[in-house]
Amino acid sequence: MNTLLRLALCILLPAGLSAQTDFDRYQTLQSSGKIPDDFAKQAAAKLEADTEDREGLSRSEEEQFLELIHYGIGEILHSGICVYGDPVSDYVQRVANHLLADMPDVQKKLRFYTIKSNVANAFSTDQGIVFVTTGLIAQLTDEAQLAFVLAHEISHFTEKHVVQTFDWNLRNYRNSDHIEQLSIYSKEKELSADEIAVAMCYKAGYSDEAIFTTFDVLMYSYLPFDEVEFPKTYFNNDYFYVPELFFPDKKYEIKAEEDYDDEYSSHPNIRKRKDSARAVIDNYSDWGGQAFIIDQEEFDRVRTISRFESIRSDVIDGNYPDALYSIFLLEKRFPESLFLSRMKAHAWYGLNLFKENNRISDAVDRTADLEGEIAALHYFIKKQSKLGLATIALRQIYEIHTRYPEEEDITLIYNRLLETIASNKRFKLEKFSEKTFDEAALAYQAHQDSVANANATHVSDTVQVEEATDKLTKYDRIRNKKTKEVQVAEFDSTEFYLYGLSDLLQNQSFRDDFAKWTKKQEELDEEDERISNLSYREQAEIRKQRINNESHLGVTEVIVVEPTVMTFTRQGLDRAKSEELEALLSDAIDYSAENVKTNIYHIDKRTLEKEGTDAFNYRSTLMAFLNQIVLEDAEAVVPVDFQQLQEIEAFYGSSKVMFTLVEHYQRPYISVGGAFGMLFAFPAFPLYVMRQIFTANSMQTTFIVLDLHNASAEYANTIYFSSPVKKWYLRSQVFNFLHDIQQKPQ
Amino acid sequence: MKLVLGLLFFFLSTGSFAQNSYGYFGKKNVLSADVTGCAPAVYWFTRKNHSSHNYRKSGSKLVDRNDLFDGGINLTYCHFFSGKFGLGMEYGLNFSSMAGPSTFYMTTAYGTGNEYGFEIRHEQLKLQSMTFLPKIEWSFLGEQFPIGISNQFGVGFTTTKVVKKDYLVEVVSVNGNENNLTLPNEYDPSKILNYENINSIKSITLLYAFNVTTPVARNLAINYGIRYTLNISPELFNDNPNEYYYGYGTSDEVEYFSESGSIRNNIRSRKLVSIIALNLGVSYIF
Predict the structure, then answer these.
(1) Is B226–A687 a contact, with Cβ atoms under 8 angstroms apart?
(2) CA torsion angle for A384, A390, A393, A394 (degrees, to 10)?
(3) What is the gyration radius of the CA atoms in chain A, in angstroms?
(4) Is the Cβ–Cβ distance between B70 and B40 less than 8 Å?
(5) Phi, psi of B174 (to 5 degrees)
(6) Residue of B nearest to A541 (CA)
(7) pLDDT, tens digit (0-9, with 9 covering 90-100), for A672-712
(8) Whole-model pTM?
């Protein structure tokens, strides 16, 4: 089997090497190949199969450790952001293979997976999995740096640092200075891993300089992957102009220092790590390594993929200014990239939404936190008014839409933006000038000049104008202000955005689109007005009808993603119990679907072994969609993976997806004080005991139905249950929900 | 009653309609049959304080021993208006007992002038109560009705009567003289237990119950919980009959013995201290 596998790798690897990534039509990293056991097998099965001897741990401690590593790592593997068999993981594997060329046994034990996250990190687990984030790869400058990071993680594995730290923690967690001591212990392990990693890099022929720059990468990884000045003219074109006053007039210094206080850190500070590495390197007098050994081109491809992924992650996480800065960095190299335009549209749409919902501080850094070149963009966005930001978003998205009119998701973003803007009472096209900023400025200048001339020659005219103005009533003045268009006689550069739609105002198609959404909004307002004039009883009836219609979706087919359950006992999260309840809930879904006669299609982490990589990818895509909805706190979002969602819809023939999220608490607690107190009120004692036992069980179940076709959250319902959780109760709960969404809206 | 209506209005007006589907598999009606039981410890305690005796039948003899168990059955229909609120009607039959109208009797032996003291021991009285009780079921914590934990509040009406039967009566000497251990002529058990005079005791019943309903099948659940009841029997509903009281001394002062009034009072006290009970039953959900 091994021979066959190697043979297959020999055939496939060159094919993989020659693979090119179309960055213009980039799509997010997906897993490929046969699904590894790490992903296919359930934590309980892995735990049972794990027979490795953990020296120093008692049986119960070992059970605790195994539960921690298998269930804990299982959560990462199935978090939807972890991928296998992708170009990044494959490249990382190749670099690791080179490092481990003379350690075939270790090589066989290790598996390398990529996590799509902007946290620059890599970590290894006791079971031999090494995770590397795209955020880390995006920051690297050469292969040798990656090699050093991998060597460091591999040495954690070979030296069994995970289990040793667990063991140490068990024996010392009661100490009063436990945190400080743990930090010291952990730092020793890190320095030890660095020392071994240095030796591995030397053996593998990698450059020693890269080791020091790797520490720099880690230190500055909170900054974008490059430090390029954001031009103040970035937004300017023939029709749009942003005055420089909206950009900071100073540079924001980068504050990170090598010698920071690491008293409570798990890792030594960078200065100590560099010094320690220097001491080891000094032992090698003949060090003469290279920055690239495997493939420089491949490194560049993988890093670019990671950078593209970092933009996607920022969009999902709502870090829109960061995404825009990364787009700015990459669009010079990939000017034709549809992906970058798509993400830019997402980012501006998200920013406008956050601003409208008064959540802009969730996306933009506080002034005190501004650092580096990206600070200019954060500063600029921070300075914008609601109307200003809406105009910039419209301008940017309109241009992208004009460039890619065939792209459905961009059209969707454009329409949703128009819908949002149309609902903003302050955004009226009449407010905007038909002149560009430059034209208006020039006209204003000319006007000022003519006024100056007129003042000199026609004093009597001025007096007449003043007299006419004096005759206006208070209400005339108010009316004039309300209906005021941008006048030549008034020009305020801080309201630059009012001159940013001059070409759009002349575009009938845009006007029609905007009018359509405005009309829709007016109809909604009229409807609200009509309802507010009805009697209380009629209003209640309408409200009830609306609530019913919210859940009556006519769903007879649904894709069901396995329930996510978290059971908390008094000891904290109990993963084994969570998995048991997950299984019970899945059974309830099957039972109820059969009884309600709803067809369900499972995308379930427990059946991945059978369903394979496609199902795994579908699951990850759906989870990203759900994350985006939760984060944006909006019913309708435009999914970052729009195309993949359409594929899923086509594959299953259903556009509805159901998620079930459960928080379950099982914390019976009878306090000695409470019980003692109850003895004085004897008849209340049994009630106290019963209440403490039964009400300590509670469950919060959230059902969410997403619509892939409309890219929206159709319905979400949270039900609180406070009793011991039983099979039949779960069945009833799911039955009610499926029955509810099966009803047709009236 | 106004209070009940007031509460009902309050709950109906604030009832949650936020969740569209509620009920157990969408079903919102429940018919429950429960047995209730308790060890009447409060009664034991109060009785002991009053130094009264509770004579239970043991074979053909009476022994002074507490009854260990009060029991009953409840039938309840409840309709749930939301996952947090329901209205129901409970019919309950409860069986309990209380100390009988035992008494002391002193007499003087004809010719000798010796005084003899007798204790007339009366078997404990069996009581049967019937309750009609409208109640609300309310969940403070979740939206799971008709299953899960519920808090029940009710205000109802209970009638209690002494069960008609041949109660055993024994005469025991209290001063060691074992002669003449026969009931005196004036002591007529049928008059002592004048059922018509005792009539039924009417009480207002207040209920709080903490109940757990655990489903075991598609339309079946088991219930268990704890019930606190307070039976208040005001004078207003319970006029004592115009009756004679027995007395000591010369026979012309005694017409006949009657304890109807004190029995009625004892029943009222007995019901008042029936505070706590456990219940277990099944529910049919439809």
Answers:
(1) yes
(2) -140
(3) 31
(4) yes
(5) -105, -10
(6) B17
(7) 787 777 777 777 778 888 888 887 888 888 898 999 988 88
(8) 0.80
